[in-house]
Fold:
Amino acid sequence: MCEGRENFKVAVRVRPRLPNEVPSGFLQCVEADLVHNTVVANKPILKKASSRIGIDDFGEFVRPEPSQTQSFTYDVVLGKDSSQQDVFLRCASDIVKSVINGYNGSIIASGQTSSGKTYTIAGTKEEPGIIPRAAQIIFSQIGSYSNPAGQYLVRTSYLQIYNEKISDLLEPSRENLKIREDGCGGVFVETLSEHVVRDAEEIMALIKRGTRLRATNVTRMNKESSRSHAVFTIIIEHGKDDGHGGMAVTIGKLRLVDLAGSERLDVDAESKLQEETKNINVSLHNFTKVVTALTTPGVKYIPYRDSKLTRILQDCLGGNCKTTMIATIAPTSECYIETINTLKFAKRAKNIRNIAQVNEDMSEKALISSYQSEIKRLKLQLQERSSGTDIDYIKLLQERQEEQREKEEVKTKLEMQQKLADEAQAEKTKLISRIRELEDKFFRGGSKAVMDTEEFKEAILKEQQRVKQETASQYQRKFAELEKEKERASWRFTNLRHHCSWADSKTHCTVSYIITVHL
Structure:
């Protein structure tokens, strides 16, 4: 196999006839050979029946001659009876697993409106598509790894391109987003939100939330036609000990793309729908131009910048990525023109070459590295606070003789010390909570989340007990010292009072003694 050929594969999925297509009299013009991965398209012939007075001319499709058939071969062909599980295993499973290991991967669904793209990518609750199955594989695979030193961080984003404008489907207020270069030959969408997820259910919740905001409209072919390109991205960071006291990080990125459907412009449609169709067709035309340039010998300039879609998918088309394009087609004669165009486009795309490599040494871009640095900083801060010197007692100044008042002052200072100790304890608790919050975002291969491990729980319990015992001990020690100092001060005051009387018995000296106690 040619270099890079195995990194770009093309599959064709033929959907079954819809219930409303059966009574319409349209013939099936496509046959799928799953054994040889071949699709045969039969061109329908429009034969007019005899005209009769008072009745308009009408036509019917008839079976074509063998000379009017075209045959196409692909990497994978899926027929009307192919299940969602078949599609995932043959088109997506290997790519998803490679993303866990640090590769870039993409699954792109393209084809005519109402040909099954969204059903293939997202599916339904009863028949889940590629996204929910990929989510299940990712988290089950991470949980099955036996290396406890490895940590995983999974985050997602969800965007749509509607009328050549990018919007964040998970943060509706973020619209008309810009594409920027990252300085390393790649691109990113500025201010696009990313969400850390811990299981497949969280991914599906985000998908459900974002899909509700996706632009749809009623068209001639589909009652709920997607009028935007949607790109759902799953980023998997894997960090492990590099053997030198640092962390080696790989970043795998999985893009799941549901393209808007191509459709002929309906001149009778409302202006908004016409504008949507025009922008979709222009965007898909630019997508085709990129594929054509990539597969034409001698062409050096690839027009990625001609549309936002091709700019975002630059790595997926001829770059560092393992890509599978799934072309979905309708089987009926009514859709023959769009079907044959899709088959020809998919045949050309087979010649795209991608060079996929593991994304290693990406620590500067990895969010997991940022979290680890923050955890280390917080742990150091916690250690310094735990082993730091006790706060000195504030000096008590008194000029009285009554012991009761002295006791009141001591009580006041102890309450102040209690407040300071409570604040110190609260700060420690806050630091521990922040560490737990950050570490809770990580997964360890073959284990639960860090905060769920018995070792972490035991460590937190020991720290709480140590702080409690240390604080109680400090209070007892300081209070005992204050009691002793009070006794000494009382003794000195009594002694001075006996020795500071004047010769004249009528004259007595009142002595004020300043006691300074360091807190």
Q: What stands out?
A: The chain has two domains: 5-349, 367-499. The longest strand covers residues 229-241. The chain has eleven helices and 19 strands. The radius of gyration is 37 Å.
